[in-house]
Amino acid sequence: MLKVGIVDDRQIDLDKVVGIVSQIDNVEIVFATTSAEEAYKRIKDEEIMLLVADIEMPHLSGYELADIIHSHALHIEVIFVTANSGYAVHAFEINVHDYIMKPYTKDRLKTSIKRVMERSGQAEITGRLYIKQKNNIHIIQKKDIIFIERTGRSSTIFTKNGTIKTYQTLKELEGELRERDFLRSHRSFIINIHYIQNFELYAKNSFVVNFDGLDETAMITKDMVDYLQENYF
Fold it and tell me: Which of 1, 55, 51 is nearest to 27 (CA)?
């Protein structure tokens, strides 16, 4: 069951979102309010998995709500439904799931919410990776892999618990990491999308990827950022 909170300061717009969301199976509307301050209180007190929010609201904006969710590492997806296109770039920087411009069709919002449901169903990566290293075999939980980098003749696997080097190629490792959560972001990198913190422009067609809880960085091409935004967020 996907638990959803909804906030829009215009009652007519709020009613539209509520009407659409209530038609989706396996979705529970935990709260729907015209007050961003009320939404903030409910976010702290209630266990929701998705917030559907307008951006420009009195006193507290939807962007500020999303920034609070991001900065406190709350496991809440955010969909903006707004008439203002000016926050789109900043929204992606704080990992907003989607940015829907008003006016919109009910299918547009339904499709976005169903993507959230698919992601939540696949959020827990299972399985292990077996890495041979001289006379040793390392067993790595796939969910602990943050990214993999190819340098020279070896690959370095960065995990929550440290790094492991292997002579397996990225192509070989990619074949063992068939989960949707892993993305070949660059010819030298495979990244786990769940650990992405943000992207920083590096060159015209590439970005640096920063990860939660890790100083090391990876690279991603502009084409793959576009693909990631279209198919994952």
Answer: 1
